[in-house]
Design goal:
Number of helices: 4
CATH architecture: Beta Barrel
Strand content: 25-35%
Radius of gyration: 18 Å
Structural class: alpha+beta
CATH class: Mainly Beta
Helix content: 10-25%
Number of strands: 12
CATH topology: L,D-transpeptidase catalytic domain-like
Distance between the termini: 46 Å
Number of domains: 1
């Protein structure tokens, strides 16, 4: 009797979850994306941080990006009170950043130029050309407050095993396939809220 109740409860939970979360198809990728991503080590994927279509918990306008640093999720707001939710890695406590900004620029497989403050903390970091060894990964969205570069980015990663953790120097890291999906959906000047 106990086992059948547990089975029934699990079945009901599965049905409810299916109603609230829906997988999002993989985005179109280029030959270069396929080539470079094949060179980045694979990580065990935590399904909590997958890419899902769900009801909008943000209340923001369509096209807005909302990052919940505590829960480690990024929401891209869609029409009809829906969002696409992605798992992210965020800044560790010492380097966390919150605020409102906008996407001023977008780049595919961007070069990485670490800021002076980062070079001072970690002298081993250096300019890295775009590609599989680059910590910015497949895409980057450059965040500005007005016309001033915040030096924070929403970007891919060459460390996919760290999605769901607080490990960056303030940037928002995503799986490369997820940042490609977000990049394809996001307009320049899109509002970004980091909570």
């Amino acid at each position: 009797m106990r086992l059948s109740r547990l089975s029934l409860a699990l079945a009901v939970m599965a049905l409810l979850t299916a109603c609230n979360f829906k997988g999002v198809p993989e985005p179109q990728v280029s030959a270069r994306d396929t080539e470079y991503m094949a060179l980045i080590p694979k990580a065990q994927e935590d399904l909590r941080y997958g890419r899902y279509l769900m009801d909008d918990p943000t209340g923001e306008a369509p096209g807005t990006i909302v990052v919940d640093t505590k829960e480690r999720f990024l929401y891209y707001v869609m029409p009809n009170k829906k969002v696409i939710r992605y798992g992210v890695a965020v800044g560790d406590e010492a380097y966390g950043w919150t605020g409102v900004s906008r996407v001023a620029r977008k780049a595919e497989w961007p070069d990485w130029n670490p800021p002076a403050e980062m070079k001072a903390r970690w002298p081993h970091v250096k300019h890295t050309k775009g590609g599989p060894d680059n910590p910015l990964g497949a895409r980057a969205l450059y965040l500005y407050e007005g016309n001033k570069d915040t030096l924070y980015r929403i970007h891919g990663t060459n460390e996919p095993e760290k999605i769901g953790l607080g490990v960056s120097s303030g940037c928002i890291r995503m799986r490369n396939i997820d940042v490609i999906d977000l990049y394809n959906r996001t307009d320049t000047n899109a509002k970004v809220i980091v909570r």
